[in-house]
Design a protein that fits this description.
alpha+beta, Arc Repressor Mutant, subunit A, Chorismate lyase, 2 domains, six-stranded antiparallel sheet, two-stranded antiparallel sheet, 6 helices, 30% strand
Length: 246
């Protein structure tokens, strides 16, 4: 039987060290997104630790979103975020529930440029490194609703540079996984309000200086790295926000 003995860092819990070791095996592709990992008893025997230690380590990875428990089926590697739809922030005329509507997507432009200082810091890349910038228009019923600027680090997304954007899927995150091997594990969105410039307003069929909602996103992969920066603009008068406190 293969064993995987642990080495310990002073001050680090045994289950914390084990969680990192298990995550490394996932990142190396030993267990792929959607795949069930070995049983707790098998892992405990492999690492030579108590069953309770394994359970604590797995609980950390579940809490971090790397693993997902399914009652009666086992523990699986998280498949990642499919869309993390921006539509949940908006309600458009003629659409009963915009969050459930699948918007069409069209890439308006794709270009390489040098990363800004802010982008380089977010991605953890050199300040002179190149990034891929996309401009994307999203529509419902052929009516434009969201305008997006998406920035991706290179060479991580290098396979997208020369690809035919007309053949891209409406949802980018599954495509990132299929073409580039990048699994988006979680996203963080920050909302504010602004105004559209003339070009942005024309693309959204709104008047210049029309108020808009600005959604700024950081998307992270399984290793916790920021791998996408996205700025989304939409009609402020279509904005909606639902919350529940208990």
């Amino acid at each position: 039987m293969n064993t995987a003995r642990l080495t310990y860092t002073p001050g680090q819990s045994r289950y914390g060290k084990l969680a990192l070791a298990l995550r490394d095996r996932i990142l190396q592709g030993e267990w792929t997104p959607g795949e069930v990992i070995p049983a707790e008893s098998s892992l405990a025997q492999s690492y030579g630790v108590a069953l309770g230690t394994i359970r604590q380590a797995l609980a950390l990875l579940v809490e971090d979103g790397v693993l997902q428990r399914r009652h009666g089926k086992g523990t699986f590697v998280t498949k990642g975020v499919d869309g993390a739809s921006m539509m949940r922030f908006f309600r458009f005329r003629g659409v009963d529930d915009a969050s459930s509507e699948a918007p069409q997507s069209r890439i308006l432009s794709s270009r390489l440029r040098t990363a800004t200082t802010q982008e380089a810091n977010a991605f953890g890349i050199a300040k002179a490194a190149q990034v891929l910038q996309l401009e994307r228009l999203r529509s419902i019923g052929n009516e434009p609703c969201l305008l997006e600027t998406i920035v991706l680090p290179l060479p991580l997304f290098g396979k997208l540079v020369d690809s035919d954007t007309d053949a891209w899927d409406d949802l980018l995150y599954p495509m990132f996984q299929q073409r580039c091997g990048v699994v988006i594990q979680k996203t963080q969105d920050s909302l504010s309000f602004s105004q559209l410039n003339a070009t942005q307003a024309k693309r959204l069929k709104l008047a210049p200086a029309h108020p808009c909602v600005l959604v700024e996103r950081h998307a992270f992969d399984m290793a916790g790295r920021c791998v996408e920066l996205r700025t989304t603009r939409g009609d402020a008068f279509s904005f909606k926000y639902n919350t529940q406190l208990q």
